[in-house]
Design a protein that fits this description.
Elements lengths: L7 E10 L3 E10 L4 E10 L5 E4 L6 H17 L2
Antiparallel strand pairs: 1-2, 2-3, 3-4
């Protein structure tokens, strides 16, 4: 069965951003299935628009900032 965007439900989305990037912690459920955590990174381009980027490695500061958002997502997954 191919992926159907209409079946992908965002249950929670919490962003954090600074002047250069945005990190978003989300909880999704596909077709009413198991809830799953997603973390995305977006960087600002020269025009100030956010563009998707590979999450890759994270700094200690980024992790410390995201931990409360991840904990909220975990609580939302119960």
């Amino acid at each position: 069965m191919p992926y159907d965007r209409n079946l992908d439900e965002c249950l929670l989305s919490k962003p954090w951003e600074n002047e250069l990037e945005r990190l978003t912690v989300s909880v999704y459920s596909y077709n009413k299935g198991q809830k799953k955590l997603q973390i995305i990174r977006e960087n600002k381009d020269s025009q100030g628009n956010f563009k998707f980027a590979k999450l890759g490695r994270m700094t200690k500061g980024e992790i410390e900032t995201l931990l409360p958002l991840i904990q909220e997502a975990i609580n939302h997954m119960d």
